[in-house]
Amino acid sequence: MSSSSSAMLHTSPLRRYALLASNPPASTSYSTRAMAIELATLPLPASADASKFADFGREVKGVNLGSLTEEQLKEIQELLYKHDVLLFRDADVTPEQQFALTKAFDPTSAVYGHGNNKTGKTTLSILHPDLKTIPRVPQVQLIGNGMVYNHEGLAEAKLKHPHHKTFHKTHISDEDEEKGATRFYRWHIDAALYDLSPPKVTTLYGLSVPRGGKQVCRYDDGTGDELEVPLGTTAFVSGRTMFEILPPELKSLAVRSKVRYAPHPYVWMAPAHAKSTGLGIENEGLEMSFDDLPPWEQSKVKTFPILWKNPVTGGLHFQVHPCGVSELIVDPLPADAKKTGNELYPDGAHIKDLGAVRDILYKMQRPAIAPNLVYPHDWHEKDMVLFHNRGVLHTVVGAFKEDQVRAFHQCNLAASDDPIGPSEEDIKKWA
Ligand SMILES: [Fe+2]
Questions:
Q1: Cα dihedral 96/16/233/405 (nearest 10)
Q2: Which whole-number Å values give the CA distances from 248 to 58, 151, 252, 267, in the listed order?
Q3: How far is the CA of 237 from the centre of ligand 1 (A)?
Q4: How confident is the model at residue 18 (pLDDT cuts 50, 70, 90)?
Q5: How far is the CA of 19 from the centre of ligand 1 (A)?
Q6: Is residue 46 included in any domain, yes or no?
Q7: 351 alpha carbon to ligand 1 midpoint, in Å?
Q8: pLDDT at 280 over 80
Q9: What's 333's DSSP letter?
Q10: Which of 44, 92, 244, 412 has the largest count of CB atoms under 10 Å?
Q11: Is 39 inside any structural domain?
């Protein structure tokens, strides 16, 4: 049975979208046949709490990503903001097409999310070893693991899957790793967090995907939490869920707060070590002094609301890249707020103590990376994943051996604007 006829038999989880090319002018040769986009829920692992993923993630079927019609593109954009992660299987997409698809979400964006300048002192950035550019389309990066030859104009590229040992304060023993234990590497948003605006979408295309046994991602934070994951998964959590599961006093704090990122945050944090959950930095005082950073300007430092408003659903997503934050700025409660006595910082605050800032953010973000709230994508070759970079946090997971060759194309573009925070009504509702 074809997937479309099975879709007609089962009302859920498949929904059918029939998009007709609307009234094509008589002089053109547009086809008027139905171009159907079909949606299926993503296959959740047994660990996931399905009730928390009702709107999260969809597989999109029935489109050719390399040649989308205007109508399909519009529909896909809306679907991305509604569902945060979209999967297209068996996609055939060139780097040029991937760039065009990514750019379609923000037509005036042009440079890679971290910029294209990899010279000078920015080579100190912790991201530097992970990024290799496709020469023809410098906005598309080749990422993965192992040696790749004659790839899209690159004679050879040595790729290295990021390993938690290079970033976390504590490490899994070689013996446990041999048995399949691993960690979340670094929960993040794809964003420079200095000068450039956070990309709206990231496109991630799996070209070569080594198959292997499951690994067990350990949190190692005293909770005993762990999560079985496919080898080399990309793990996602919803920023909307991150906000929704908070108790009222932390919702109030989130809706009133902004974070200020350090200048050149990836250079600043380079000497520091991450927590065992990959969700922020340990307080060891190892960050670089602002005076030792590459030249920077106050006007390019980024201060963002903690909550970013979804342009389609109006929902609020808790979008903080915890590693790069240096300050927390809290607005006072609105004058007419009903007080319960539990409010945090009712008169507002500007918190510059790094330990305090990190403790507050961790308290708010850690609940959302609980094993039952994580979607670990099980990659297959030719999977194209689009994720709403302003609506989710994600992380690399796992460890490969040197001979396990993984090659992915990744693209995101520094956006043409900064994210929008909560509206006045949002603040009224949640503060
Ligand atoms: Fe990323």
A1: -40
A2: 30, 51, 6, 35
A3: 13
A4: very low
A5: 32
A6: no
A7: 28
A8: yes
A9: P
A10: 412
A11: no
Question: What is the 202 CA–ligand 1 centroid distance (Å)?
Answer: 8
| Residue 84 CA to ligand 1 centre (angstroms) | 14
Distance 247 CA to ligand 1 centre (A): 28
Residue 125 confidence (pLDDT): 65
Alpha-carbon distance of 157 to 405, in angstroms, equals: 11
Within a domain: 1? no
Taking the centre of ligand 1 as the mean of its atom positions, its distance from the CA of residue 189, in whole angstroms, is: 6
In a domain, 16, yes or no: no
Q: What residue numbers bound the domain in which 153 lies?
A: 95-431
Is the predicted pLDDT of residue 244 greater than 70, yes or no? yes
Distance 338 CA to ligand 1 centre (A): 40
Q: Among 80-84, 278-282, 335-339, which is the least confidently predicted range?
A: 335-339
CA of 115 to the centre of ligand 1 (A): 14
Confidence check: pLDDT of 27 > 50: no
Contact indicator for 234, 204 with CB cutoff of 8 Å:
yes
Do 19 and 35 form a contact (C-beta atoms < 8 A)?
Answer: yes
Between the CA of 262 and the centroid of ligand 1 the distance, in Å, is 19
| Alpha carbon of 191 to ligand 1 centroid (Å) | 8
CATH number where 290 lies: 3.60.130.10
Q: What is the mean pLDDT of the chain?
A: 89
**pLDDT value of position 9:** 34
Q: Comparing C-alpha atoms, which of 273, 271, 279 is closest to residue 217?
A: 279
